[in-house]
Amino acid sequence: MITLPVLICLGVLQKPVDIPASLQLFEGSFIVRKGAAKDVVPLKLAKPTPRLFQAFRRNETHAVWDERGLTVRVGPRALSTTMPEISVTPKLFDTGEIEETVSLVAQGKRKRQASALAGAVRVGTDVYFLPRWLNSDGTAWLEALVKVDLTQPMPKPQLLGRFSGTSLADQAIDDRLFILQGKISLVARQRGVWGLATFDPFNEAFDFVPVGASLNGYRQLSPRFGLYLEKTSYGTQTAGKIDWVTQNRRILVETRGSVRIADPFEAPILIVSEAGSPYIVNADTGARQVLPSSSAVRRSQFGVVVWSPFDAPKRAWLYDPERWKVLARMPAVPLSER
To answer: Can you give the pTM of this predicted structure?
Structure first.
């Protein structure tokens, strides 16, 4: 007969059950199973649905950006504007710059109406929008920060000024603004430099902290951390992680080949190619895994799926991205051969 203390010891010493995973290709998707749970990973991703609006509300007061521009509604009353007056305001431009804009608008090369949004955030009862004014080729020639006070009887957008540099926005309605240590923040490019542009809503002051020279790519991981790609002056490309609070940068990869940020994962993942040899890197742990020359990478809720060839998979692996441990493979390998 086993006594209770012995049963308790056996319970403590028993190892947790490691549920095996499986990987199967079926009708254009990988079926990943782990126990009773299942995830479907398609070979071809559908195009992301563009954001159609950005909305904020306080009681009966609404502030919305959509195809009409900025609309403020209080109960049944509504006001929509594309803020053309900002494009020629003396608060932002001198006389020569205003005359240039008027001329370019007349030539059809520039628009006076804001027609895109780089981002919007709320601080208390105030909402901050960063509209974009576009050239005829779709590039932004102006971004200006405006505020809507949701406590006003009928709020109107108030011009605050311009950030130093231009956002990385590339969508009609993007999400590039974030709050960092109480400041409205934006990763921005200037001529020959990139860094963090901020607006302090309490002091109503703009600032810019440069951190690098030639930005090739960027992904915000959280308000504090970002993953960046940068070209050096001596011909290499670096991928790194930046802490915006301390402004410390940690280089993860430096290569004379190519590097890109993979589609969003729980961990930041980089794809690197050097002399025709690709590999995948976990930017948090630094762990690397060699990839087949013709391969594709996709996330799953159970790990990272890699297959080859990318257009007609014959082999596939499910990895734990922390150390790139193989969790499952296709074709499956018998346990006796692992």
So the answer is: 0.85
